[in-house]
Design goal:
GO terms for molecular function: oxidoreductase activity. It comes from Intestinirhabdus alba. This is Aldo/keto reductase. InterPro entries: AKR, NAD(P)_OxRdtase_dom_sf, NADP_OxRdtase_dom. The protein is α/β, with parallel strands linked by helices. It has a domain of 197 residues: NADP-dependent oxidoreductase domain (TIM Barrel), CATH 3.20.20.100. The protein is 37% helix and 13% strand. It contains ten helices and nine strands. The strands form two sheets. Strands 3-4-5-6-7-8-9 form a seven-stranded parallel sheet. A two-stranded antiparallel ribbon has the order 1-2. β6, α5 and β7 form a beta-alpha-beta unit. α1 runs parallel beside α9, α3 packs across α4 and α7 packs across α8. The radius of gyration is 18 Å and the shape is globular. It binds NADPH dihydro-nicotinamide-adenine-dinucleotide phosphate. The site of NADPH dihydro-nicotinamide-adenine-dinucleotide phosphate (NDP) has 27 residues, from α9.
Length: 284
């Protein structure tokens, strides 16, 4: 079966599951396992790695840098800039800091982590400078709701935005009201963060729900794999689960091949309905 792909900037096809790194780099004891997990993921096709200058205060980027040793060209590398660094010389310095920690000369995608400190004009201008300098290939945003995206679309160059990375899992479906359909209409991929609801921490009982587990049994899969399969069943949506063990990475990669039937999707969505109207964008 052909696995589901997401196309960035109309050019770069990637498997619809990638790898997150939040909480990596927090402990020296876990570093070796984190590096091994990331490398195992790339080997199994989870070639997008998502990180940020924020995670473990730069130490997650160092873990990724170690994992990239010898395989940089196989990876689509994503990092994020703090809002208060997202303009002018600060953006250049922040990006250079990320590149140093990641031990590479370019990012495939650089995201504004959330908005607030600089106007979109300044952030877009900084991103364009970084592209001209060859430090990033493309840029995008994170945690922007529908109205924020409309504002970004009014800015010169704003429509070059390659993605919006937002919280999305079966237990948090607010983006389906307006943001997701709009991104789909623009042909802009959405990156779903916390697709496992942080192993259920963000939504009590998600991994233990009887419906999810029944469906998992039918696919000889785990509840986590069904959650990933559900996220990527949406057009133009990729999931970036964080996994710090090779076994979790193996499961997450295998979720690329799970096809949920329309009936299974309907059962999952009946168990966790989308809110009936507009809600504020969910974030962690
Ligand atoms: P996730 O929903 O990815 O959950 C991570 C948790 O799930 C970890 O405890 C992990 O355990 C566990 N897990 C992973 N795979 C499995 C599996 N197959 N079965 C059971 N448990 C599993 O949460 P995150 O919040 O980490 O989101 C993913 C990524 O999205 C982040 O790492 C980060 O890169 C990005 N993100 C971006 C944000 C933004 O503001 N832009 C905000 C939050 C996240 P273990 O580690 O032990 O494998």
């Amino acid at each position: 079966m052909t696995e589901k792909q997401i196309i960035f900037s109309g050019q770069v096809p990637l498997p619809a599951i990638g790898q997150g790194t939040w909480y990596m780099g927090e402990s020296a004891d876990r570093r070796r396992e984190e590096v091994a997990a990331l490398r195992a993921g790339v080997e199994r096709g989870l070639t997008l790695i998502d990180t940020a200058e924020m995670y473990a205060d730069g130490a997650a980027e160092k873990v990724v840098g170690e994992a990239l040793n010898g395989i940089r060209d196989k990876v689509f590398l994503v990092s994020k800039v703090y809002p208060w660094n997202a303009g002018g010389e600060k953006a250049i310095a922040a990006c250079e800091g990320s590149l140093r920690r990641l031990n590479t000369d370019r990012l495939d995608l650089y995201l504004l982590h959330w908005s607030g400190s600089y106007g979109y004009e300044e952030t877009v201008a900084a991103m364009e400078t970084l592209i001209t300098q060859g430090k990033i290939r493309r840029w995008g945003v994170s945690n922007l709701d529908y109205d924020d995206m409309q504002a970004l679309w009014q800015v010169a160059g704003g429509r070059q935005c390659a993605t919006n990375q937002v919280l999305y899992h079966l237990g948090s479906r607010g983006i389906e009201y307006d943001l997701l359909p709009w991104c789909q209409q623009q042909g802009m991929p959405v990156m779903a963060y916390s697709p496992l609801a942080q192993a259920g921490r963000l939504r009590d009982g998600l991994l233990h729900h009887p419906t999810i587990n029944e469906i998992a049994l039918g696919h000889r899969a785990t509840a986590a794999q069904i959650l990933l399969a559900w996220v990527i069943s949406h057009r133009g949506v990729m999931a970036i689960p964080k996994a710090a063990s090779v076994e979790h990475v193996r499961q997450n990669a295998a979720a690329l091949d799970i096809r949920l039937s329309a009936e299974e999707i309907a059962r999952l969505e009946a168990a966790y309905p989308a809110p009936p109207g507009k809600t504020a964008l969910d974030m962690v």
